[in-house]
Amino acid sequence: MNESSNPLPQHAFGESADKLLNDLEAYIPESPFLHELRNSLHQLSNLKLALDTSSIVALTDHRGIIQYVNDKFCEISQYSREELIGRDHRLINSGYHTSAFMKNLWTTIRSGQVWQGEIRNRAKDNSYYWVNTTIVPFMDEEGKPYQHLAIRNEVTKLKKVEAELQTMMTQVMQIQEEERKRFSRELHDGIGQSLFSLIIQLDSQLAEQPSPVLENLRSQVTDIIKDVRGLAWELRPSVLDDLGVVPAIRTYIENFCSHYGIEVHFQCNLRKRLDIRKEIAIYRIVQEALTNVAKYADVAEAHVDVEDQGEIIQVSIWDEGIGFSEESQGEGVGLFSMEERARGVGGYMSMTSAPEQGTSIQLTIPV
Amino acid sequence: MLQITDEMRKELNQLRDRIYGDLTALAFMSKSGGGKLHWYYVSGSRSNRYRLISFKVGHGIAGLAVRLGRTVTVNALLPGSIRLRQECALMLAEQLHSAIAIPFSSTGNLPNGVLLLGNRDVRTFTDSEVAEATRVAQRLGELCTHPPTS
């Protein structure tokens, strides 16, 4: 332990390999041992060169005090080596990660396990950069870590694109909803109303003079109205906008039962309206989840629970069907879009399933 | 409501035996023109879920057969089959992977009923099996004489 709290020798991390290589012959007589040693040192020196060219490397003691950084570290953080050594990583902390995240990192490496993850850091000029980080703890004889080697690669661009992609997804889904709403309204109020006025005209004709041909026509127009309304409803049920997510889910479940022959048990204590974007997210996720139940679960019953827990709305959709394992998961665009919908309104969604154990979808939406 | 007679049951049960099918089923329109179809009798079903299932003309393999007025086939080898299967609640409920749907008419006009043959594995139906089933579909059309009132 003493050794680790010593002020750091500048050559702390393999810096001495080259020097040793030069001095080898002066200390060790020519022998196969010398030969092997030279080879090993050579390899080590090459390895270090490769690592330094490719990655950001830092070595800290068990408390996280920086003992060594390579040039790449200085370059990206914009701090000089002198500014970094002897300080801890709080210097470049961006304040982005939760304390739980940092706690998990420390618990992992203190227990001697390798930690891997993405961290956002702050450079000297206050700009941010993302690094994909691997921290390897080195243990002493007592099994306590005395040093941590952190190897990082910059992924700022990747993170930026990832964030853009997510924003884009949310926007695309929003546009899709708007379009659906527009078409649904058009169908219902436009074509639907025109057809209805046709019925009224037919009725007045029929009142004057009964005719089987007109009767038949009237019944056909009625069927078309039903179809148009059905289509409008499928696109976007107006009840969702007018009365909220709970009546919308209720109606959806009714139709679902008569379409698929699956009984859905619906429990709900949500009595208030939510932000319409959140209501849409909940509705679409329930819809998608139930469709998946019908397609894959092979069950006669399913469950939907919507629970208002004050701060959050907890939605579960579950069945006791055939389930599936992670590996057998299909193309799964559905699941991806459900996750994105949840994320788009600040919530999150998780799914658990195992063969013969059914499937459960848990959705948490902040109020 | 359509009344299922013993003779209709017999036709469907015997057909299932003769074509080595896992299931034969009869759907009929709940009222003349438009409207939805319901499954009235299923021979070889795993559950009673079919009693709850209704579908629209044009939807799934059975609905499409009624709309087109011709036989429609679903099996894993044919393109577009996945959608036709997933839109057909009976195929999902009964875990059918191959099926053919043959429309029939009880009025002599547009189709208002459909006969479905299905298997839970991937198979093909021979021409003579299809011809046999088409004959049964016609017979069912004759047997469903009284237009149901709903």
UniProtKB/TrEMBL annotation, chain A:
One of its GO terms (cellular component) is membrane. It comes from the Bacteria. GO terms for molecular function: 4 iron, 4 sulfur cluster binding; ATP binding; metal ion binding; phosphorelay sensor kinase activity; protein dimerization activity. It catalyses: ATP + protein L-histidine = ADP + protein N-phospho-L-histidine. PROSITE patterns: HIS_KIN, PAC, PAS. Residues 115-167 form the PAC domain. Residues 151-178 form a coiled coil. Pfam families: HATPase_c, HisKA_3, PAS_9. Its cofactor is [4Fe-4S] cluster. Residues 43-87 form the PAS domain. Its EC number is 2.7.13.3. Keywords: 4Fe-4S, ATP-binding, Coiled coil, Cytoplasm, Iron, Iron-sulfur, Kinase, Metal-binding, Nucleotide-binding, Phosphoprotein, Transferase, Two-component regulatory system. Residues 182-367 form the Histidine kinase domain. It is found in: Cytoplasm. PANTHER family: NITRATE/NITRITE SENSOR PROTEIN NARX-RELATED (PTHR24421), NITRATE_NITRITE SENSOR PROTEIN NARQ (PTHR24421:SF10). Member of the two-component regulatory system NreB/NreC involved in the control of dissimilatory nitrate/nitrite reduction in response to oxygen. NreB functions as a direct oxygen sensor histidine kinase which is autophosphorylated, in the absence of oxygen, probably at the conserved histidine residue, and transfers its phosphate group probably to a conserved aspartate residue of NreC. NreB/NreC activates the expression of the nitrate (narGHJI) and nitrite (nir) reductase operons, as well as the putative nitrate transporter gene narT. This is Oxygen sensor histidine kinase NreB. It comes from Paenibacillus kribbensis.
Automatic annotation (TrEMBL), chain B:
Residues 27-140 form the GAF domain. It comes from the Bacteria. InterPro entries: GAF (IPR003018), GAF-like_dom_sf (IPR029016). Pfam families: GAF_2. SUPFAM superfamilies: GAF domain-like (SSF55781). This is GAF domain-containing protein. It comes from Paenibacillus kribbensis.
